[in-house]
Amino acid sequence: MNELYAKCISFDKNVKGRVGGNPPKCIEEQIPSDYNFYATLVHPEKGNTMLSVIIHQDYNTLIDNNIYPSIAVKVIEHEFSKIGNCTEKRNTNLGMCSISEYSEDKDSENILVKIGGTPILIQDEESYYKELEEHGFSFFLSIDEDGYSEDVAIGSYPFGYGALYLYMHCTTNEIIAGYWQCS
Predict the structure, then answer these.
(1) Contact yes or no for 64/180 (Cβ under 8 A)
(2) What is the Cα–Cα distance from 105 to 109, expressed in whole angstroms?
(3) CA distance readout (Å), 33 to 28, 66, 91
(4) What is the DSSP secondary-structure string of 22-68?
(5) How far apart, in whole angstroms, are the C-alpha atoms of residue 40 and residue 22?
(6) Measuring CA to CA, which residue among 76, 78, 85 is closest to residue 25?
(7) Residues of 86-121 as b/e, b for ≥16 C-beta within 10 angstroms?
(8) SS3 at position 143
(9) Which helix (H) or strand (E) holds 69?
């Protein structure tokens, strides 16, 4: 797959991908009690399929569990679903913004999502990705908090002004949270 990029844009109800707000209706019951909704992205290889990311509510737990296989971030693959009413699973540190459609344009501001290619790491240490690669996973996409528009973060950045890296299994195509890094 060619490298693709998406930007953080003002919320638009007609755009499927977004950061913040209530979780999609179809996953409300799948979110564990100690997790909150973070974002939902259009699966770049499956048009009407979404990847919703949920993160542990406690930042210390996130810090202590930031690398596969013990990562306190989960990815749920599902069909597109409208925003639900489950306000208790909303991340209160985030305003709501949309994630633009994917394009090959990497030379613009607010690049939030990078798909394919080589990950741009904050800390280029093999310990982050070595076990993933040994278990048949390869880099799929990253969400970089440097790409937030100014109206997204209304509290602490969920990943400490860092980035989340999702990986795909080479055989099963399962997408998981591989690790996250903060700056």
Answers:
(1) no
(2) 10
(3) 10, 19, 13
(4) SPBGGGGGGS-TTEEEEEEEE-TTSTTEEEEEEEES-HHHHHHTEET
(5) 10
(6) 85
(7) beebbbebbbbbbbbebeeeeeeebbbbbbbeebee
(8) strand
(9) none
Using DSSP, state whether 77 is helix, strand or coil.
strand
Of residues 148, 15, 12, the one with CA closest to residue 91: 148
Going edge to edge, which strands form the sheet with 70-71?
Answer: 70-71, 66-67, 175-181, 163-169, 137-144, 111-115, 4-10, 97-99, 18-19, 35-42, 49-56, 73-79
Q: Which pLDDT belongs to residue 72? A: 98
DSSP 103: B
Taking 70 as the pLDDT cut, the residues of the chain under it are 1
Q: Find, among 166, 47, 55, 149, the residue nearest to 101 by Cα.
A: 47
Question: What is the three-class DSSP state of 144?
Answer: strand
Rounded to whole angstroms, the Cα distance separating 122 from 157 reads 15
Sign for the CA dihedral angle at 129, 2, 144, 96 comes to negative
Instruction: Go through the chain and tell me how many residues it has.
Output: 183
Model pLDDT, residue 151: 76
pLDDT value of position 183: 82
